[in-house]
Design brief:
Elements lengths: L7 E8 L6 E8 L8 E9 L8 E3 L3 H4 L5 E12 L4 E5 L2 H15 L7
Antiparallel strand pairs: 1-2, 1-6, 2-3, 3-5, 4-5
Length: 114
């Protein structure tokens, strides 16, 4: 079984807000996977979609394991089972710093990007 850490990019079943279904899509891990079998992830979507205020463009697509220009939609977070995750890549340091700033803004919590 794969092990995951914060800022890994994974494929995960992500819930739609508007209807009760899941879609497997790239996501960014933002929680520390513990012994619960659950982890927080943030949605990654195509950069072709209409931008939201706190979206973050992924700088290094190769390191992220993504083929098309993509954004991290920091406003959309979900809890998923770690057993459903498939490894894709890892977020580059520049994009990671931008995501942390957005998360601090959303959650009003002190977070460390390391």
């Amino acid at each position: 079984m794969a092990t995951f850490k914060p800022f890994d990019i994974v494929a995960a079943p992500f819930p739609y807000v508007e209807r009760p279904i899941l879609k497997r899509r790239p996501c960014l891990i933002v929680g520390e996977p513990k012994n619960t079998g659950l982890v927080w992830v943030i949605m990654i979507t195509s950069a072709k979609n209409k931008a939201w205020q706190d979206d973050v463009h992924i700088q290094d697509l190769d390191q992220a394991g993504l083929k098309a220009a993509s954004i991290i939609r920091t406003a959309k977070i979900a809890t998923v089972e770690t057993s459903a995750l498939k490894p894709v890549g890892h977020l580059d340091e520049k994009t990671k710093a931008l995501v942390v700033k957005k998360l601090v803004k959303h959650w009003k919590l002190p977070l460390d990007s390391k």
